[in-house]
Amino acid sequence: MNKLTGFKKIAACTVAVLICASVFSGAGSVVMNAEKAQAQSAELKENQSNISDTKSDIEELIAKQEELDKKIAETKDNIDSEEENKKAIEEQITTVQRTIMALTSTISQTNDEITALEQSIAEKEVQVNEKHEQIVEGVGEFKERLKAMYVAGNNSYSDIIIGSSDFYDMLMKMELVKRVAEHDDKMIDDLIVLKDQYEADEAELNAEKTELETKQAELETQKKAHENQRDKLQVLFEESQIAIDELSSNQEIYKNNLAMIEQDKAEFEKHLEQLYMERMAIQTEEKRKADEEKARQEEARRKEEERKKKEEEEKQRLALEKQRQEEEEAARKKAEADAAAQQADDNSGSGSTDDYDTDSGSTITDTPADTDDGDDDTQLYIPPTASDNLSKNAQNGYVEKSRFTWPVPGHYNVSSGFGYRNWGVLVGYHGGIDIWDSNIYNAEIVAADAGTVIDVSNYCPHDYGKSYSCGCGGGYGRYCIIEHSDGYWTLYGHANNIVVSVGQYVEKGQVLGYVGSTGHSTGPHTHFEVRLNGERQDPQNYV
Ligand SMILES: [Zn+2]
Ligand SMILES: [Zn+2]
């Protein structure tokens, strides 16, 4: 609002200067007009430089946006495939987990079996111990027997039999020996059986136990292997999650960058809107002052007419008065003459002469008031090549579609059109057309129609093809904007030089500059835009 108020003040001063100028001589008027144009030009320049300072590089932004869109799409694919990978790992983990659970249950079962076996081993050991005791007991008995025989001095059965006192004694002794021998045999046999059984049982139990222990060890190994596999999968799962988190955070960064670029673009458009509003305010104020001046002059003219009318009425009144006096004088003279004549007639009888003058005098001529306000603020700059440029278009067979002519005479190839370009996730916007061919460098860029230069950026030493933006002129490099009548603007970008300046009036076809590759430009071309009341139009509807 402050800026707008500033513009209104400037406009008011400008009109004040105009009113003063009309009072002075023609030479003074020229001086004052020049001052006014200078003030306007200075204001526009300040305005333009303010905007240039904050302008962002739209073309660079669009390229960045395209790159980011690709990255976002790629990242999304990566996330999708990583999610699939994670899911596969998750499934494997579930499978391994199930196997581990099955193994755990088998191990537990085996443990139960081992426990049961150990119990039966313990029971068997008790039995074996009993048998062992029996053996020990039997061996003890046998030893007692041997001891008794030794004590008796009978070293052998034959000694006992031989040492018999009589046959009966001998028979008795023989029977005894036999029985003792049988008993001894049986006892020894029993002992041997017991010992064998004990050893067999023990071996069997131990074998069974060893088998179970082997089986259990095997199961434990399997379990360990599965647990290792599960742990590895767990690590993969966590890594996958980390990758997804990282990709998601990248995705966020890309999206934020994209949002920032969109914001920059919006800000640039806002500045152009501001410029447009300011231009509108100046024009409205100028028109209002002009209307006021016209009304003032109309009022002065009306008053002058009234004054002249009154003067004329007074003149007529005086004329009538004079006529009346003359008539009276004539009547008086006539009466005198008549009296004299009567006297003479009375004397000689001569006739009368009618010399009455009916001429009422002058005719009224109306001279109109001088309404020339001396206001001619156009700075006529006669370009040497404007008509040449227009006829060059005609000679090349170019037929004008509208009031606008082709901005680069002799070069009619459009390499990039206006409108939305599909870049995948989002769409980009190209605000104009790019005019390009292989020998366009240094060709003349001409005003598509007559108008006033309202914006110029003529600094960019980077006149060569590049895939990035040097940032000069908000990405347009060296460019200018022309304001035409009826709310039209045209923009010409990427020139190697601009030869017009802000505030200057240009004719249709007048050279504005020369084709270059400044700003964000991959090669020599002219970026051409048409705006109507600040809104971008498709230039191909106009040229
Ligand atoms: Zn540059
Ligand atoms: Zn372009």
Automatic annotation (TrEMBL):
Keywords: Coiled coil, Signal. Residues 132-191 form the Peptidoglycan hydrolase PcsB coiled-coil domain. Residues 338-368 have a biased composition (Low complexity). Pfam families: CC_PcsB, Peptidase_M23. Residues 285-394 are annotated as: Disordered. Residues 1-27 form the signal peptide. GO terms for molecular function: metalloendopeptidase activity. InterPro entries: Cell_wall_metabolism_enzyme, Dup_hybrid_motif, M23ase_b-sheet_dom, PcsB_CC. Residues 285-337 have a biased composition (Basic and acidic residues). Residues 369-378 have a biased composition (Acidic residues). It comes from the Bacteria. Residues 429-539 form the M23ase beta-sheet core domain. Residues 34-134 form a coiled coil. This is Peptidase, M23 family.
